[in-house]
UniProtKB/TrEMBL annotation:
Name of protein: Pyridoxal phosphate homeostasis protein
Coiled coil ranges: none
CDD domains assigned: PLPDE_III_YBL036c_like
SUPFAM superfamilies on file: PLP-binding barrel
Family to which this protein belongs: Belongs to the pyridoxal phosphate-binding protein YggS/PROSC family.
């Protein structure tokens, strides 16, 4: 299966649903990204700032770039001119830096709150209480150039389907709680980013609106 075939496969899987595909392009060459673009991919996910900033000028301007990896505040400036969504928001400090850099370019940067739902300690993200502390702060309420559009998480690396479903359902629960408490009149807050190559079907069944798929499109990464 070619990259193009794989993009078409995922688009057909998602047809008729409200879930969209984020094509995870990390480690792949600009030529391979162009092939994905030609097949219709428009949301691209990268996990490293330098790599995203290097590729972006080589590709069409109607791509929505999503940063999906941990982001240090001092690196926000490199992607602020173009990044659409930072999916890995895990602190108020990061939101404040996004605000500062987005303001400089007179644009809006979207963010997803990343939650820790996986069993492994190594995976980063907020607890529900930490997210609420951010959302209740005056500093958050004053943001003008940052728009939170939902939640994101990386599930445990396991083939245990019941376990994965519980984690996805936990994230969906967080989304609905936050929506009811803080974003009930805010149409922008609507995304639940969950599901990757190995577990996207379960994630869709549990309400994902953004699946992040890399290896099932491009093959395994070196
Ligand atoms: C790499 C990555 C993905 C895609 O993983 P695949 O298993 O290749 O589909 C999804 N989400 C995040 C946060 C990633 O870093």
């Amino acid at each position: 299966m070619s990259i193009s075939d794989n993009i078409h496969f995922f688009e057909s899987q998602l047809a008729g649903t409200t879930c969209r595909l984020v094509t995870v392009t990390k480690t792949h060459s600009v030529e391979r990204l162009q092939e994905a673009y030609a097949a219709g991919a428009r949301l691209f996910g990268e996990n490293k700032v330098q790599e995203m900033a290097a590729k972006q000028p080589e590709l069409p301007t109607d791509i929505e770039w999503h940063l999906i990896g941990h982001l240090q505040t001092n690196k926000v400036k490199y992607i602020a001119p173009f990044v659409h969504t930072i999916q890995s928001v895990d602190s108020l400090k990061l939101l404040l830096e996004m605000e500062k850099q987005a303001a400089k370019h007179n644009r809006i940067i979207h963010g997803l709150l990343q939650f820790h739902i996986a069993a492994e300690d190594t995976k980063t993200g907020l607890s529900f209480a930490e997210a609420e502390t951010i959302l209740q702060s005056d500093a958050f309420k004053a943001l003008q150039h940052v728009r939170l559009s939902g939640v994101m998480a990386i599930a445990t690396n396991t083939s245990d389907e019941a376990h994965l479903r519980r984690e996805f359902s936990e994230l969906r629960g967080y989304f609905h709680e936050l929506k009811a408490r803080y974003f009930s009149d805010n149409e922008t807050f609507r995304e639940i980013s969950m599901g990757m190559s190995s577990d996207y079907q379960l994630a869709i069944a549990e309400g994902s609106t953004l699946i992040r798929v890399g290896s099932a499109i491009f093959g395994s990464r070196n």
